[in-house]
Design brief:
Elements: E1 2-8, H1 11-15, H2 19-29, H3 33-45, H4 55-66, E2 72-73, E3 92-94, E4 97-102, H5 109-121, E5 133-139, H6 141-146, H7 156-165, E6 174-180
Helix pairs in contact: 3-4
Amino acid sequence: MRIRLFDFRHGGEILERRPAYMELYDVVSTIERADVLAAQTAYLEEGKRVPAGGQSALNKVFRERLIPLGWRPEPRLFPFDERGLRKWKMDFIKDDIGVEISFNHAEAIPWTFTRLNIAGESERVLEGSRIDVGVAIFATDTLKAWAKMDSAVGTFEIAEAWLSMMKPIMPIPILVLGLDAEGWAPTSVFRGTGKGKQDPLG
């Protein structure tokens, strides 16, 4: 997997000295086309409803690779008694690095960055969920097209523009990673949101 980077408030400079980030980067950079296709076809083999686009397959690959390395999934940011806030979570955390993997609607992009910012800046965040630097991972336009993601999914390109605009209210250092599928052969495994037949062999 090729990776594009957008460095915000020297997030990359901070992270390059962290073994946990190098571990994360290695996981991301070694994801291959075949890994994503295998994760998607696993839904068929398990008899589960097969997602239309590649978002779920990519999330599955991340969970299978990061959790065994000690990355804690879905850490809550606030105590249960915080009413509406108790459902706020990041995707992963390790060694004070918060990770958000976002293949959601473009309108959710500011909230992706807001969660990281709150985890780094709010004194009310649970001790074990506090971070000092964040990583946000998005699909680039090429991966979005290859995986037939919904047209409303936000991309690295849009996230870069959003974060630049949010600079006055975002003190937390963040490194944005764009997952690039340039050079990957097309596949019919993903049916997308339109009509089409899936080929389980890719």
